[in-house]
Amino acid sequence: LFRSGDMTLKDIKINEMKLNTNDVFITPHFGFINLTAKNFSLSVSMVATKKVLLLNFEADLLATAANSSFNFLMTTYFNGKQLELDVSNVTVDLVDTNLTTNSSLAKEEVLSMSLSGEFKKFFTEAIEKTLETNVERTFKIVRGEMPNQIENPGTPLSVDYSETQSLVITPTHITAFLNGTYFLTAKGYEVPPGIFSGPLPDYDSSASTAAVQLYFNNYSFNTALYQLWNASYLQFKISHTDIKIVEETPFGLHPKV
Q: Residue 110, class by beta-carbon neighbours within 10 Å (0-12 exposed, 13-18 middle, 19+ buried)?
């Protein structure tokens, strides 16, 4: 809430934010990503309440800003199931701000409020908090809608590619670690016994033209082979009726029937 004299602002909501992708700059550092946006504009609605005599009076306000900028840092963490985003150090520089209302009773107070440095500080802090909350929530919603598993067409297998740890962020590259376990679709996810993952190579800086580098661990192939065997796709029986072994064989095998 923001109070100016006997007027209080509440129900603050961003209605619209206009931002050109060419004005967004993403810079990875060690452990975090810095995001800067310039020349954005926005409109924010809010409700002003004021007590007039014995009545509580409310008026709809619209705050706008143009030619503004913001900056924040992003890090990821692994919650045990999937990645989550943490937004911090949000700073907003609002320029060309304006506050209007369609209420004739509140116009004088609104004009006085819009000219105060206290209101601009409140407006800025409200946008900073809203940005932090909305970016984190949007990432969580989008990540939650992404499947962790996918079926392999034409096979009885599916693969789990959920994250296993937080992103490793450096100035030159970002590394994501995915599960890679194959399992029988009909039985559901399970980790085969006795199969372990080994180390993966690091980012290859010599492959400068490669925008994405993808490495597969032997673990993924081994789990796929195990599950195919488990489903009897790699099992077969050989009897004396299936093969003929002659005496001339170099192994000297002479089956007895």
A: buried
